[in-house]
Design goal:
Structural class: mainly alpha
Helix content: 55-70%
Strand content: under 5%
Number of strands: 0
Amino acid sequence: MATPAISPASARRVFWALAAAGGAVLAVALGAAHYMEQHGHIVTGMNNQVVWGLPHVFAIFLIVAASGALNVASVGSVFGESGYKPFSPLSVLLTVALLAGGLLVLVLDLGRPERLLVAATHYNFRSIFAWNMILYNGLFVICALYLWSLLERRLGKFAKPVGLAAFAWRIILTTGTGSIFGFLVARQAYASGVIAPLFIALSLAWGLAVFHLAQSGLAQLAGEAMSEELQGRVRRLLGIFVVAALYFVAVHHMTNLYWAKQTAFEHFILVTGAPYPVLFWIGYVGLGSVVPLALLFHPRLAGPRSTALASGLVSLGAFALLYVFIIGGQAFPLEIFPGYEVASSFSDGKVDAYAPSLPEFLLGIGGLAASFLIALVGVHALPILPLEAFARPAAAPAK
């Protein structure tokens, strides 16, 4: 049963309350970033071996999920599924919001944010990072055109070709994000051609989970909801994407286990290297994949609340997997010259410890807050369906 719609006056109060809460969290995050900028890595959990910490976990999640948030728009505009089309603007808006939040964390975590303009205008095309700068900026432009064509009736004829461009660009972008790790031959955890398609599969699951959480939250405020038929389609689609992601994660680890030189790393990350095995098996495989699949497909459990719970668990499982992938991959001893025996006095063969500091955690949360604020303002300022009543206080309450 749909929740009764809130009045326009209540909608305004809810909007400003949410905006104030999101703004406060973002302000704290910016303060944490400034604190780390002033004092350096000594106030973080990072060191000479673990150089990408918890903020990178948040940033990669947001960037990968941004690509997948376009799922609904792609299905509606590109593949012609009319039931999804009313949700296409929200899908595109979430893509922009998530990508902006992720990039904000990346810029502040990597240091020297005042030199961002230099990084954005001077490219080394032999670096995958330079290509990703172009891909991220390009997605912003394409999404702006896509949203314009969806909201402006006179430009509706351009929605499909722009949607096709957005679909192709997001696949390339996620390939580029995965290739950042796939091209890192110096780290045993990465350096694999499987990582690019793995990231695409993860983006499909994580993006749809985030979209469903956002859509469900907004629908609760407006007293509107997806039809049962569309709920069923989203539920099945999310389940298929979770299975696909789980499959590619299994392929990645099975491929590593096939190589004798990777056996020690796989034993560390999956069995002995606490806390990574617990996060992987219980956090990602159990709570982030198996339990959501049961909620999505079991006939006695399937329903709107179960789908929302499954989406939340898929998102939390994403953080567990990325923590294992990013932090655990760096904590394992670095093999600088594969095939050769070398010795030094600097942490040879030592598994490095990493404990995230409070400023790192606050910066990561700030990325979520930034995405939340952009989506909230977008829903308030633009006729983003299905919450037109909430976005436009003057509109009549939904029945």
